[in-house]
Amino acid sequence: MKLQYIAVIFIIIIVPIVIITTTYINSQITTITLQNKYNTKLTDATYDAIKAFRINTVNNRYSSISDSKIRDIEAAVSTFFNTLTSTGDLSKRDIDAYVPALLFTLYDGYYIYSKYDNVVPKENADGDEISNLNMKIITDETELDTGDAYNTDGLKPYVFYSCRYKDGGSDFVVNYTLDNAITIYGTLRNWEWAGNTCNLKSGYSYQTLSGYLINPNYVEIIDNGANPINWKLKYKYTESGTEASLIKSEILTEHLLFTNYLQDASGNLIYDTSGNPIYDNGDYEYIVYNGQKIYYDKNETTKPTPYFYYNNYGKSFISNAEHNKDVLSYLNARLSTEADGSHHLYSTNAFEYYRDAKRFSEIISKLTDGISQKDAVDLQGNNIEFDVATGDRDIFVTNDSSNPNDPLLSKSIFDENRMQVIRNSIKTNLAVAIGNYNRYSTNSYQYSFPELDEVDWGKITNEVSVISFLQGIPIGYKFYNSYCVITNNDNEEVVKKDNIYIITKDRGTENNREYHLPGCTHLMECEFDDDSDIEIERGYSSIDFLRQTVRISEDNNIYFYPQTRVNMIGGHPSKDTKNITACYYCMVNATNVYSADDIIKGEIVELNEQEQEEVMISVVNDKGTTVEQKALEKIREYYLTALGRERFNLYQANMSGFNT
Fold first, then answer.
1. Mean pLDDT of 468-495
2. Is 634 left (phi over 0), alpha (psi -120 to 50) or beta?
3. What does the CA dihedral 636, 637, 642, 648 come to, rounded to 10 degrees?
4. Distance between CA atoms of 578 and 566, rounded to whole angstroms?
5. Would you call 417 exposed, middle or buried from its count of C-beta atoms within 10 A (0-12, 13-18, 19+)?
6. pLDDT of 487-496, one tens digit each?
7. CB 547 within 8 A of CB 538
8. Where are the alpha helices (DSSP H) in 89-202?
């Protein structure tokens, strides 16, 4: 065969293969490029959504109110789509076809943003109401289709983290939260509170109870007398050798900034060292009553009362009126006169948290004795199968030493069931929402709920989060299908165990203030005795260390930090006020931080040389000095005080209004 023939055959066979291979490779490159592009866009959009929610809640003093919370979430949704379409490749209308759902998990439930039927049957229609809601009225003769006239995008009704339990005569629902607070309502055993004991009675009745679950055996009331300032209790942990933590009243202080300029006694503006007028600001003691912070102005003598709310960046003083008698009675009972003639406002919220939780937990342990995961049923009364089974171990009995179950600790029976209920509820409702999206979509792609990995489920069931889904976008010869989970707990929704910061300062001064994670290894090396250079000042929620915005005008914002302390020059606050600093070892460059569970238990657990867990009762500081258990005990006392106080202060979790 001539060489020319061989060359022709080679070209006929090889060239098509090369062309096909090149086309395939280019297609794969395009697919991978587009996939990475959408991965980045989805992550950025989800991050911006949770960031917008955080900023709005931090700077919105009414963010815990339902309508205000919905506005914050709707703003976060808008931020998500703005970021997703920011490059201009796809419009909001185009990208909307590929986003079957967004999920916002909050403290005690979640919102799903998706497409839904915007209709109401005629027999249930109220003309004005339907008109205000911009809904369509359908009759028996109207055939519902998938046109835009009959559906819309928006937030579906709020879904609580709830589960129904049925056993014998008991048939009740438990609403869980992201921490140890629960609400129980339904048919329960009758009971009465006699002295300090819950006694069961015959019969059943419909009841509603809410509170925080703890181990009531760990709480020892010392003083619960007529003077709230003297209230105190001990929180023990009987499984360790740690000394009991003393929980008592405390003085809380916060820095505030106002929109008006500071003036002297003659009404003249006060200027800083640079010649700029100083905005009025100061440090104020405060307490929380019914979920709202109330501040005490010790220098105020012209108003009916020295107490005020921080509203619209100004002081809104409480009037001495009949309708304010309850709050004034609460405040005045906690205002002390010290030996030097000064006055201080004491918060008793930490004490109230553990006192009320002790009583609530004792009641619930009696009413739900024997209730386990096997008693969980759906609306039809069928048993629910969870991804993780806890068998027949009691969920809500927390004072049984033979069945350790401390709701404050991770991986307890209560905590495991809490996470499983949240997971099951979200899986069920998201699968329906995404599956129903096929009714509205004009794409050939079949939308479905993807399989989430265990790490993401751990985030979703424990933290405030946004979960976004992007599906069905053509990328080469395949469709893009992915999801993204971004969490953030620096908001007004929840106080997680890791969201408590401990403040230290130079002993006897306000200088060199620093904040730490409670499990900071460097903090654990401090001796905290009378000869120490530093001392613990207080513990606060992490949100108090975030920057707050004060809007002066359209283009003029000023900022402050609630845990700043003001430097004074010539009797006036300086422009050069030094902010509190973050600990380098745990906040800036965290390498080894003990867990919050270790702090709560009063036990630092590490691996020994045999890779076995061993309780460490002392640590060695950088000077080579052994610091005994007292450092851990001191940190634990301030931590437990702050954790109880901050959880008690949550607006939606304030349990004082329920019949316990």
1. 86
2. alpha
3. 110
4. 7
5. buried
6. 987 777 889 9
7. no
8. 92-96, 127-133
